[in-house]
Amino acid sequence: MKLYSHAQLIKTTLICVIAAVLVTVAICVNYSKKHGSAGAGTGAEVSEISTDGAAGAAGAESSVCVEGADGIENSTAFLEQNPASVISVASAAGSGYTQEEAQNINVYALCNEAVVNINTQVTAYDWFLQPYVQEGGSGSGSIIDKRGYILTNVHVIADATKIYVSLFDGTQYEAEVVGTDLDSDLAVIKFTPPAGMELKTIAFGASKSLKVGQRVIAIGNPFGLERTMTTGIVSGLGRPIQNSNNRIIRDMVQTDAAINPGNSGGPLLDTSGKMIGINTMIQSSSGNSAGVGFAVPSETAVRVVADLIKYGKVQRGTIDATVIQLSRRIAQYAGLDISSGVLISEVNKGGNAEAAGLKGGTEAAYYGSRRDIIYIGGDVITQIDDIAVSSLADYYSALESKRPGDTVTVVVRRNKKNVTLKIKLVES
To answer: What transmembrane ranges does the database entry give (predicted)?
Structure first.
């Protein structure tokens, strides 16, 4: 038997421990390499995206998209939408797709069947004033409810006598108007899907969490080319833009994603497939995409859709008074020291505005035509809360998100001085 000293025993033990650690590390490294190469070689690794905002390939960009999603989901609980689903495509390692391409493919696969083509018919009149039907406008829409509710723009269905929606499979159905809202240029229409048809829907995302530079995706029907997809970034946020109805829509999302005639009413999506805006207009001298498009934010859309489906109109708060656009001519005639703002012609007797101290005019004057009479000498609204009011468009925009019963701070010009009032709004 061979004898060992105490020092030799300690040395031998240390050597064994170190050897065991090295062997363990080597085994782990080798396993990791094999696991990674197997995923790349077989194409089994996938990029996943689901309607609850979880994207395997989205990374930090998608984490920005879904902030505040709980608030949106609570606000849209009245909608009947598809449950969360997962669509997978091979990742860059297994298929040759880049991460960005995989995300684009995922979003299109998830959402394109929920985008419809909208065509309208309108009534026209010939030289003998006889009515006849002709083709109207066209645009896009998003199916937001399995019962057949579709979100689009007001100007897409304006003056329509008949509205037709075409689905991804080419089938066409006649739709009816549920409600429209000029202040946001949003409308909800509805068709009745056949029994047994399971409609795909698009869920709302949180537009308040958007960041400039974040990638976005538009799907629509430009020039009648159905379910065309374009990509870009968020170019700007909080843009106040005047629409075709001469109403200013605040907090518009600006994007450089190509938006052309026919895209109106279609969804602007984040990389998780959530609708963060409704494509509404472009800024262009030619009428075609010039890299400056605007979308109504999803937070506005959710609020408007809820009222349109429930009431057929948006329950919006207003000041119970008759208002007139102030002009230089009126200001000069009335001897005012300002020429922009909203003139208070009359205040409803016994109403909230009168109780708050708002003053109407006292001197009658003709306005526009000999049949229109306004009253001058009253207050001129120049600000509502923190929004400057220089026109009727500003006035309606400042009240767009207000509800009946809300109290607003109103600054009026009276006797060449600014007066601040607190006015409780009534239903419009």
So the answer is: 12-32
